[in-house]
Write a structure and sequence with these properties.
heterodimer; A: alpha+beta; four-stranded antiparallel β-sheet; 32% helix; B: alpha+beta; five-stranded antiparallel β-sheet; 14 strands
């Protein structure tokens, strides 16, 4: 059962879309291809779709219009591989955040005949942080369901929140935007806008684990304000010793980055782009590379590293290194 | 005559390697790619430029062109690299039969191959004036293929084989929403992407992701086969960048949430100890026979796991590490939380106010070095039975210090 098969391919998907929408004229079909295809798809696809001589024989031209030769509207059925993946997905410990027990059972019944592809024990996320999100807790599950409903229906939310360091609950009025999941932290957070005391809206990020209650309000909001994102960058010199080039290029691959080879042997320049709120995390990641990665700009970032290194020297540092 | 360029490919392996290099490294010029001919580079680059056009960045260094895929992996709802798995080439018979067979089998009606041949001829091909024809063997082969894909089923009545479509599965809105989540974080998420692609109408995903590593998608096929082998306790054979034919009993995939690197852990045929191999270097995986001894090796791995920090399964005597931290309990609670969350199998003890001890037993101390470096500024003392490692840790610290305080060190 191959994963790399043409029935999952983009060309088949575009053909299905076109066949569902026919009759259309050539321009309209080309537009569907262009909207759904890759850079060169139109050229390759159109050639085989319209050309009667060496064509796919799925459409028939009648004057300006193309008609489907099919008698029904096509939709690709779910394959065995996809069913197996769904059954495997049902074993995940977070599944109740998305499907009720009845929904899980219903899906499982549809998949009775198929086996799972693998089990949770076959893959080990050995460096995943311990989480305080309680995926099995019904209150937590309910909160996630309400947050998703708020996002999809664009409804204001009233959220009671108790941060880890606070003793009291704070009630926020929120315009929810997205639920952010971090695999490393195994944690969900709500991204959105919170109303300040002065009535303005500011960006906020709330840990779902610290949300006490969620109330869906009846009033809809318009999602017209784009979140302002401040992107920052650091530039580093990388010395490719002890496999550092590969480790670093992989490690920072979830940031937008630019790697350039320098004239000195085994030296590279790495520029990493990040969001302001991720600065501490990036700093920690840079520190983990030790002397093989040196930040050269900006100064403010360098100073943070210097502060930690100096503090370490003051706290403890083996004397034999000075000899 | 040179073959005409095609956007689609028969085999994903070469494309997988090029795409990874453009994304992970992004500094290599045409001369530095050694996977195939220069022409192969040109073709793969052209494909990648076509598939990922909005993410392409080009640099010129000393007159040499380098191409990179610049994607910010943070907080995206979709992984663009899933497109790679939608690029399989096909013939005109493949696409014609796909749509026509599904059209014929739309309800639960049964057909023999002979009936299908007849139907295709009279109901579909007859509308064309040209001489396009399909022989019964091609149709039979395609029908058998769709049985294997789990779309059609084969039944015998007397001596005759009949084919019909398996009952159609309809996915509810909530299931689709669950797939929107799992396709980005679950192994072989591309299958979820395929499931969503067949839906005509779908709501915008309410999720975004942090710390997901898009490049893992390049290894989807290898990951799928290895996970199946592990689950079924089967041996496998595969190739790596260095070796052509490796016989291996896979036991577990070790996947890093911090760096996105993945390793296959298991037993090399003929060797006693366990090995870990970087997953992205593996290709051409073939599933072999079930190994009845798998459970024994799983137990061996479980035992070794207790003294391993990451995916490097070391086979050395266990050493003890004690790290004493000085942390301000009032102002730096987040650091105590970090220790608790990131300690893995280690222990964290509060010794007295503002003093904490982290203890762990490991077979390979080198693996924990990066983690400890992130606590520079708080380490009060380190005690390790591996003195050589301990010395290297501080030598590296000193080097790092000199990097950032060059003038001070020179004085």
């Amino acid at each position: 059962m191959p994963l790399f098969h043409e029935i999952y391919g983009q060309y088949f998907a575009i053909a299905e879309k076109v066949l569902q929408q026919l009759p259309m004229n050539k321009n309209e079909i080309q537009q569907v291809i262009e909207e759904n295809g890759y850079g060169e798809t139109l050229f390759h696809f159109a050639d085989a779709f319209f050309n009667e001589e060496d064509a796919w024989h799925l459409v028939k031209q009648d004057k300006e219009c193309y008609h489907s030769i099919l008698h029904q509207l096509p939709q690709r059925p779910v394959t065995l591989l996809e069913k197996q993946w769904l059954k495997t997905m049902l074993q995940d410990d977070k599944i109740s955040l998305f499907l009720t027990e009845a929904e899980q059972l219903h899906l499982l019944n549809q998949l009775q005949e198929v086996s799972v592809l693998f089990g949770p024990e076959d893959i080990d996320y050995y460096d995943q942080f311990q989480t305080d999100d309680r995926f099995h807790n019904t209150e937590y599950q309910r909160n996630i369901h309400l947050l998703v409903a708020g996002i999809q229906k664009q409804l204001y939310l009233e959220i009671e929140y108790q941060g880890l360091d606070n003793q009291v609950n704070v009630t926020h009025r929120i315009k929810p935007d997205k639920i952010e999941y971090s695999h490393k932290n195994n944690k969900f957070r709500l991204k959105g806008k919170r109303q300040t005391k002065k009535g303005k809206w500011e960006n906020c990020l709330l840990n779902v684990s610290e949300i006490q209650t969620v109330r869906l309000l009846k009033q809809h909001f318009e999602n017209n304000s784009v979140q302002r994102i401040t992107e920052k960058s650091i530039t580093c010199l990388l010395k490719d010793q002890r496999d550092t080039l590969e480790r670093a290029t992989f490690h920072f691959s979830n940031y937008r980055k630019v790697t350039q080879k320098l004239e000195d042997e085994a030296m590279y320049q790495l520029t990493i782009f990040y969001l302001a709120q991720d600065e501490t995390e990036l700093l920690i990641q840079v520190l983990s590379f030790g002397p093989f990665l040196k930040v050269t700009a900006p100064n403010r970032f360098i100073q943070q590293i210097q502060y930690r290194l100096r503090k370490q020297r003051e706290m403890f540092y083996p004397k034999y290194l000075d000899q | 005559m040179a073959k005409k360029f095609q956007e689609l490919v028969k085999n994903s392996e070469i494309l997988r390697r090029y795409a990874r290099d453009f994304y992970i490294y992004g500094f290599k010029d045409r001369e530095e790619f050694t996977y195939g001919s220069k022409r192969s580079y040109d073709n793969e680059r052209r494909r990648i430029e076509s598939f990922f056009s909005e993410f392409i960045e080009i640099d010129y260094n000393n007159g040499k062109k380098t191409l990179r895929l610049a994607i910010d992996g943070h907080r995206k709802s979709e992984n663009p690299f899933q497109r790679l798995w939608k690029s399989k080439s096909f013939t005109k018979n493949d696409i014609f039969l796909h749509f026509v067979l599904l059209d014929i089998f739309i309800d639960q009606q049964k057909f023999t191959i002979a009936e299908l041949v007849e139907l295709i001829d009279t109901d579909y091909l007859s509308v064309f004036q040209d001489d396009y024809m399909l022989d019964p063997l091609t149709i039979r082969k395609k029908v058998k293929e769709y049985v294997a894909l789990g779309i059609l089923q084969e039944n015998k009545q007397g001596k005759t084989l009949y084919y019909q479509q398996l009952p159609r599965m309809v996915l509810s809105e909530n299931v689709l929403q669950a797939i929107q989540f799992y396709k980005e974080v679950f192994p072989v998420g591309i299958i979820g992407e395929h499931l969503l692609a067949r839906e005509t109408k779908i709501q915008r995903s309410p999720y975004v992701f942090k710390h997901t590593f898009f490049h893992q998608t390049f290894d989807a096929e290898v990951t799928l086969l290895l996970l199946q082998a592990i689950h079924q306790q089967r041996e496998v054979s595969f190739q790596t960048y260095k070796q052509n034919d490796i016989q291996f009993l896979p036991l577990k995939i070790y996947s890093s949430c911090e760096s996105g690197r993945q390793h296959l852990v298991g037993k090399l045929k003929g060797k006693k100890r366990l090995y870990s191999i970087r997953l992205h270097t593996i290709s051409h995986v073939k599933l072999k026979a079930v190994n009845p001894q798998t459970v024994l090796y799983q137990e061996q791995l479980l035992k070794q796991k207790e003294v391993v920090w990451n995916a490097a399964i070391a086979n050395r005597p266990t050493q003890v590490l004690k790290v004493f931290f000085s942390i301000d309990e009032e102002k730096e609670v987040y650091l105590i939380r970090r220790l608790e969350k990131e300690k893995r199998q280690g222990d964290v003890t509060r010794l007295e106010k503002n003093r904490y001890l982290f203890q762990i037993k490991l077979a390979d101390m080198v693996a924990i070095t990066p983690f400890l470096r992130t606590f520079f500024g708080r380490i009060e003392k380190i005690q390790c039975t591996n003195r050589l490692w301990e010395k290297q840790f501080w030598v590296d610290y000193q080097k790092m210090y000199s990097l950032y305080f060059e003038e001070e060190v020179q004085r």
